[in-house]
Amino acid sequence: MSDHHRLDAPDPDGTRGEKHTAGAFDIRNFIGALLGLYGLILLVMGIFGDQALQKTGGVNANLWAGIVLLLMSAFFFVWARIKPIVVPAHVEPVDDDPARPAPKRRPTGS
After folding, report:
1. Which residues contact 88 (CB under 8 A, 6 or more apart)?
2. Looking at the whole model, is its pTM more than 0.85?
3. Would you kindly state where each structural domain of the chain is located, as residue ranges?
4. What are the C-alpha distances in Å from 57 to residues 39, 50, 52, 65, 76?
5. What's the pLDDT tens digit per position in 91-103?
6. Span 37-64, mean pLDDT?
7. C-alpha triplet 98, 100, 103: angle, nearest 5°
8. β-bridge mates for residue 87, sequence order
């Protein structure tokens, strides 16, 4: 590694310190969206669908599961907003390791 790429070396142009957030690509947003989708489906089924109270001991399971999933979805979205993942602006490429050979290509055809 050369001296100008060291982490403790001064950064003359000031670009190494710039950071941005993952934003919509944060995994917590995907998890929140999926939980929200399933929660909304279960909530609608709990309100308008067959409640099957005899099978669940008098509890509307779809309704309560939908409410809990929507709350968890909101938790993931708020968590991603309050404490975002910080991505550095510049990441150095990994050097090739000469001790490790490149993957071999499979022969094509018969």
Report:
1. 16, 18, 19
2. no
3. 23-82
4. 21, 14, 9, 15, 31
5. 676 677 778 777 7
6. 93
7. 115
8. 20
